[in-house]
Design brief:
The protein is α+β, with helices and mostly antiparallel strands. Helix content is 17%, strand content 30%.
Length: 249
Amino acid sequence: MDHQEKYYHACPSCGMLTPYLQGTCDCGYRFRRKFPKDRRMAYLAGVLSVLLVVAVCYAAGQYDAGYSAGVAAASTPAASPAAAPENGVTIRRVDTNEVVGSSGTNALSPRLALNGQIVVEPPEEGVAPLSIETSGDGIYYVALARMLPGLNGTASVPSDKTYMSFIVRGGDSAEVLVPLGDYKIYYATGSTWYGKDHLFGDETVRYECDGTFDFYYSASQYEGWTLTLYAVAGGNMGTERIAEAQFPK
């Protein structure tokens, strides 16, 4: 095929040579568009190149979108920080879930311990006041167990389950509202709070307050108690150190 055959049409009507890119001869004859073999291959290669570039750009765009979504999801905060304690007596309610490793105090995760923080929420509405006063620099965990009626007329006994509990910081005081009823009151002390299940770890010291404590409604007001968890002159409440098994769960 010579130069003319590669780049020109030979018009079958008038015999004139017309460029391939021109679809109509000057005499009016319309040519069928047909590229020579070598030009068709070049044209096909160009189309494939364009399609390949488009595919690569699309794939890159999808990857960037997925990566951005992953980063956004990973950076979402898991939880809001707890509010800072206010001055004076406060009542706090915060999550007390544990983060526990293998075993022993060194594997436990310290938890937030705010003054007046409710650890075990009572199933009934609290109405009667319980005020706790403390001293020192430690942390106090106060637990109340419901008194249960004894069997066959025997004396009532405390439940082995904690009905309500809360935190008091050493040297501070806190007041909470307790549902009406009779309770046994216990407390534990330590310097680092690990939550309800582990209390203060290996350094936990547990106590039981003497007697029982009734919270009731009288005349026009709810009657409660004020307890001082340190020695005072003329004090009328004793405490006894107890074993872990004697402390309500």
